[in-house]
Write a structure and sequence with these properties.
The longest helix is centred in the last third of the chain and has 28 residues. The protein contains two helices and no strands. Helix 1 runs antiparallel to helix 2. The protein is mostly helical.
Length: 57
């Protein structure tokens, strides 16, 4: 379960980086902002999983 959540976090971060880069490339501020938001969600999910790992060990 934890590995699956970590994978989702990494995927969300990668998706966000791609969106942000695409938005920057075409000059679309909204797409760029969505990308940053996706990255933040991925970061939050990853932090949550790291905290869970600390308490497990």
């Amino acid at each position: 379960m934890a590995h699956e959540e970590k994978s989702k976090a990494k995927a969300e971060q990668a998706k966000g980086k791609a969106k942000e880069a695409a938005g920057r490339a075409v000059g679309n501020e909204r797409l760029e902002a969505e990308g940053r938001a996706d990255q933040a969600k991925g970061d939050a999910r990853q932090s949550k999983e790291k905290a869970k790992d600390v308490f497990r060990h």
